[in-house]
Amino acid sequence: VPEWWPALAVFWTLYLIDGIRGGRRDRIGFQAAIGRPCARAKQAAWHLPPPLPTAWGVVVEDLPCSLAAEGLTNWPAASTSRPPPLPDAVQSYRWEDVREISTRTGWIRVNGRRFAPVTPALDAAELQRLTRALSTQGPTARAEHLRDWHRRRLRPMRLRRRLQLALGRSRLLAELNTGQVAFLLALTTYFLGGGPDHMPPAVRDRIAAALPWWLGGYAGVHVVAVGWFWRLHAKLCPERGQERGGLVLTAVLVPAQGLRLRQHLVAALGNRQHPVSAALALGERTTVAQLTRDTLADIRWPRTPTGLPADTRKIVASAGSLLEPLIHAASSRAQPQLAFDSMFVPLPAASADACAWCPRCGDQFVRPESHCPHGVPLQPLARSALAKESGKKSLA
Length: 396
Ligand SMILES: [Zn+2]
Hints:
By secondary structure, the protein is of the alpha+beta class.
């Protein structure tokens, strides 16, 4: 029946975009269609969980600044994303020089200047608390305070437990939602496929007579599902009361957005976690290895263009060396174990001309004295690797 399709198109579009997250910045998303914490990471500005009621998605992001005992800068350290969240205008402060912190349109402002975007891990209030604590401490106490602060962002075991709990508790709710979606899909197929025209009149009339009852029953199930979601959300995310009201209201008023309720129980779990922590908790094996390597490479060979002020450079290096042992400690508990020894060993030379490589991005170069396009000094490529490779080839 042609007059049905615009309404159905709107309904299913609203269903598909339920749970979409994004914005101007890149974030790292972990998504899976099934109830297991084993996802591939994807870096993108927009993230949409798989279109199933059983799916879940967690989105995390790098801290868009460096925090060190010497001070803070909006040039990031220990970033997992590529490229890291680099600022348009570099700013650096000693902690004792920070006079005023405020927020405007999603940005933290320091001393009246736009500093860094607000992120779940660090908003103006959190930076204010850090500044107040750090500005009265000595360098050693500052470093210890920051290490404690970062440790809370590196708790993969806790994140994994919380995800497993949320997935377990929402299993039946996800199944109920799946049943609702199946019913609505069947109904959509019936009407869009011109079901009433193909059916024998007796069957068609019986369906037409039963339809109000089915829809009434569906409305009852919808109310039960939303009520159930309310209780689960209150138990699993007690601190997110404000968000809960909005989610429940949307689910009630826009039934198409009340069919993937599980994802709203999971979405905020990784909010404050470092991307490496999220990878360790939720990622599949290759994701864990890749994201840990990228983060450690950003600490050891950070992007520091020639124009970057010396004090900024110092804060970035100091923030990185503060974080490196913490990231190492967290990722050394990964199962199966990560091969830290071979993480920064170059691959065999790709061509006979290649004689240098960039340990940050892994690219190979033919001019040993140069820098990679990101400003990282190149390292010589072992010729033995090439020799071994060509030896193998000649034998074969
Ligand atoms: Zn490079």
